[in-house]
Amino acid sequence: LKRITDLHMSSISSVRLTSTPNSSRMTGGGGGGGGLGSGGGIGGTGSDNEIGAVSVDAGGLVNKLVFSKGRLWSSTYSVETECLLDGTAGQILAMDALPPLDLASSSLLGSGGNGMMNKNKNNNHYHPSVHKIVLIALSSGRSSFAVSVEPKVSVLHRWARPSTERIDPTIGQDDRLTQVSSVASSAYYDNDDDDAAAPSTYVSSYGGTSYVSSYVSTSTYLSNSTMEPSPPKPPKPLDVNSTPVPYLPCLSWGWALVSGGGHSVTPILARAWGCCLQFLRASYPERDDNDENNANDDAADEIHWPAFGTHDEFDACAPVVALNWLGKRSLVYLTLTNEFTIIDTVIMTMQERLDFSGMKLVYAEFALSRSRQRQQPDSNARMTFMNSIRCSDNRLLVLCQDEIKEITVLGMREQIISLEDGGQWLEALALALDHYESTLDRRRGNASASSSSSLKHLDAMMMTSSSANPSLLLTEDEIWMAELLMRYLILAIDNAPVESSSPMEFSFSNSKLPNRLNLAESHFEMLSGVCLEFCIVTRRLDLLFGPIFRCFYEARYINVFLDVMETYVLNDKLKYIAPEAMVLFVAHCKDMKDLSMVERCLLHMDCSLMDYHSILSLLKRNALYTGLFHVFSTGLDDYISPLEILFEAVFDSADAAEDLYVDRRKDGFPRNNFERYGYKAILYLQHCFNGKTFPKGNEILPEERVQTLQPELFELLFREISNSPQQQRTEQQRRNSSFRGVRGLSYPYLRALILVDTKAFLDCLAIVLDDPRARFAETPNQMHPLGSWEVEYESDEMVRKFGSPEGGKNDLQLLPDRQHLVNILSSIIMSDSMIDSSYHLGSRKQLTLLSIKAKHFFLDFLANYLKLGVITAPKYLTGEVFIRLCNKRGASEDDILSLLHALPRSSYELDEVLYTVERVQMTRGALFLHKAGVTMSIDRDGLLEKCQHHFNRAIDCYLKDDDEDFKKGIFAYARKECSGRNVSMLRNVVLQRLPELVKLDAVHTAHLIGEIFVEEIDMILSSLKGIESGRVEYAFLHAIISGNLDKVDMVAAQELSANLTVDHHHSYLLLMTKFQPDIVYRYLSTNRNYRLDDALKLCQERKITDASAYLLERLGDVSGALKLMLETLDTRMITLKNILDHSVSANLSLRKGRRPADPKSSVYQNETAEKEVVRIKQILSAVLDLCERNKNDHLTLDNERGPLLWFHVLDRLVNTKSLLRMSKDSTMESTSIAMSAVLSELLLLTMQRMISNVSLYELMHKITRDHAGSDLGEFREMLVSMLMTYSSELDVCSTALDVMYYDIRTMSYDKKSLKVRGTLVHECPKLISKNSFLDVGPAGICDVSSRGHAHRNNAHKLSADEKSSAHNAVSLLQQRRRSERHQARRTGKRIRRGGKIINLMTASEYPGSVGGAHGIRQVGGLSEAQHVGRLF
Fold this sequence. Notes:
By secondary structure, the protein is α+β, with helices and mostly antiparallel strands. Helix content is 48%, strand content 11%.
């Protein structure tokens, strides 16, 4: 029709036909592509006057062409060319054009069953602009572009290239260079002419190729060609930044269906780049009414451009080399491994995969640009198959070497019919289900619809089953699929194994019959599963419980169908069972003796779909109460009716039981229906009170329903008369009849559950009573006789008399008063007639046991709410509560105390409760009650003895407690009770119990005596004499005299000490020498309240050396005191040596063959030796104290200087080794080492005390003179310690001096910085007198002061002392700096400080007045400022 030879200078790589703005309808096809060096032909047919096209060549030149048919010569075409891209932007690697919507709609007619009917709908869905915009897609090496060429050329969207890892997942970070080069060099070369594989050559063989890429090595679709593959070229490393991606992009525009979009098609651009497939959606605006009215007015229409967004994406298993749309929901692509795949783009599933290894497709090698060739000379070609695979009219045309092959996709119905004709029924049904799930179900827009929608669909099917036009509800495909299933079912039943007898009966004489029966059951099980699965998926429950159900019933295999149906119900696949089927299912379960299966199935069904009348009557008739709960609560929102029905069963089972209350089984399994139904009722109540449905445990919604449900259940439980049909009698009939049993008593529902399990039922009630959200009515008169503390009740008649509160009847969320509820429970449980004595409940023993257990559980229940203070109880009942809490297993004293604290005093009998508590030895509870008794009787006449008794018993309770800290609370309690008036009897009790209090804590006892009995101290001490050999008296005196009481109460300690006489102190000293002789010396050295002669005599009698020496010293005999103590020290050292000798000898016999112990640590490992060392140190400390006290004011032994006392002690310690006669025998080596260690420690202690009292010179002179012949090793440790101590003192002094100098220097620098600191001046007066003062304000403005010389004189006025100190400071500073300057002149150097040469003189050191440096500086006419320490 038209030939153009000068359109492109390079080879045309792609041509696509497009629509034109003036054409009303266009048909299009794929254009051919030519290699480099030859022109590309343009193919296609058109019925209009204009045909559009877009062509792309290898150089990147993109032209837009419009072919017009001449008006005069209709066979002649003219062409108009417009350059879209001139090639400067780079090569265009792929291009495709979006066909017009009219052309796409006409090509889609054969792809769906209702395509013709929906054609106009599809065309009218979008805005009219969709017919005026022509879209193409271009792709460079970096990005893809959506471009409009009509009505104007514009780039609408830029689509970035995928990441390299997604394009080729085999390329890693380390081997990317090598892999890119390897893949690039593995092009499809011809085997006969390897060198001819130039970029401009079409290779005529596709099958004889070899792949070097990693995909071929793992692929199973390899070429079967007989040609020899060409050897791969070696890989050459490339620069990653300049290396192109090794695969070309592939583009394909199409009008496709999308998920959730109905029948409307949407323009989708599919792009494949390596292994990555992506979809870009172009969204056109929808048509509105104005667009329809102006559809023919093109000038009035405005162009609405589409919006673009990524629709979906996935990864292929190998790089894609060709891509094309096939119809409105299928995309085909060819991979490098010869795999041809068809994808359903609506549900994103693979439909089919073919092997194209033998097709020998024609492909082209795309040449790279020259810059790419320079960078990559060996890998400058890329393969493309985009011009070899094209789609036209739902046909796929494949260009092979020798022919063009056509591939057509069969419709779903044709495929199913083909399988049906081949006898592959199950495959056909499975394909039909796939088709339904992917198309019909999604078309309905509710892929996950609930079973309620199934019911609506089911009802609609039933209502229109006899209608003349059922297609109003079902599509043609759905009707056809149902017919397919029925054909299969009838065929399968007709060809089922034939039995000679009934399938449910067989003769055992025929041995083959059971095998045939099992085969038949297996056949019908499979058939049932197929029908159930098909109908559930397609939502055709009308078909399942209609024709299909009747087929199985007529075939007499309905039980097999029901068994299979049960599995689907339990797996939550089937939510509904028709009433006819439910009747047969219940009968089947009853025959199988497994009625619980019906209840289990009901729990998985949707109750809103059921026929309530039939299902409820069925459940009642078969006593399926769990299912009844579920149906009533879930379907009808009724929680009361099923419970009433269950209670009727409880009453009937109680009346029918022979022996109702028998011993319960240990495993808890119910023995009879009474227990079984009763526990089910309790469990149901627990679920409801917790806001859960029974038995599934789901939340009851809305939450407000829970608040209204609780009052409804309580109203039923606390109903006085049963609403049973058997109870519909008049009161006269009831009195005349012999009606017995639980149903005939008051509050029958409560009594029934109490008989079942009192504890479980009360725990159930506690759920509501403890709920913080529950609201309870308030009794108008809170002091009901039943609930008061004073009135007792005996019978149920009193409960009926008072009745329940009347308030709040209109409030549906208001619960009855808790007090009223507890009163009713108490009238039932605590009475002796909980049930008719003649009723067949059990033996008398069992009845007694039942009553006791019920009372115990109720008392526990009552105790909890008494603690909370929300209810009251009469005294006798409160006493029963205390008896229960004290005697039950695991009784806790904390429970008793919490209840006592919660109850008012008038709510119980003190003596009875006290007797109960003391009997179980709960001391703290008894203490609380005794305290209450003291408080109650202390101010009442005639009860003083009782008060004294309670107080005495309270002290006993404190003393018997196991907690030591709690015991000490007795002192605070006694102080509180004995501080008021009329407490003489209580004080007598305290005095009588004083020895016990002293043994408990002497300090707190002394504190108590100091506050209450301070004037009776002499009488108290007399009463304590001789108790436990004087220990109690000593502990009491020690608490006062030792100062321990001062830490608690200094005032009380001073008062008690002031009342102690010398005799008391002497008694204390006497007892101290008896019980604690080690602290006698400390007491004597710190106190003077004793007779010196008596104390010395006592200490000498008791042989307390340090105390005797101290007393001798006080008497003036310092020599005797020192001699006595040193002799004692020697004796102690000898004793220590003997202890160590004995210990070493004992250890040698025990440690034979073992590792010897450390001799130095053996002293502290021996407890006796360790105690002796402590005594030696104590004596030495007393000796050193004596030396320290007499170093200045007392003569020494030789009437010389004071240090000789210290030296005498030092000589005695040094000579101790010779005194102890330490031998060098190896057996006694351990003793010698241990004694040396002790002596070294004693010498070190002595030297530390001598350092502060003896000069270093005298100490060193003593050691070097008297011990000149001794080894230095004996004094090394002593000398080193002494010198280190002096060195440490010198370091401390030196550091303190450095700190002082640093502070002085810092203060000088601060003072200097203040001197040189100036003030920023912004403005100054022009005329200033000579002697004026300037005041600079915060804003930098100067003001002239008029204060004159008087102000100046006052400012500079100094006292005489200040002037003198200032002159002295300046003189010293000037003298120091003159000496520094003189030194500098001698050395010829200038003084440097801080790295800079500065002048060391300040302005105050220049000739002038010293006072000039103080006060306000005179500037006077803005003369030069004074500089301090300025640089030169």
